[in-house]
Input
Amino acid sequence: MQMSSHVRLLDASEPDHDGPIDKLAFELVLATRLKAGDLVLCTAGDIVPADGVVIEGTAVLAAGEPLVRRGTRLISGYIVLRVAA
Output
């Protein structure tokens, strides 16, 4: 299973937003740059880049727990993931 080397990193200081998910501001960063507490936007087809907790979103995952593991694929929808320690 190949993971993307880049992820959509959201601004953790402003986790709330108004409007549709496609209007969220994000920065493309290397997945290796992620650290605990970072917020990552994952959309349908993405493979989750790190272990974490879903804090927002509705998605069908290849797993069914609130703690999402690195390597889990999103089947549909989106999630905002807070990267775990």
The two ends are 23 Å apart (CA to CA). The chain has a mean pLDDT of 81.
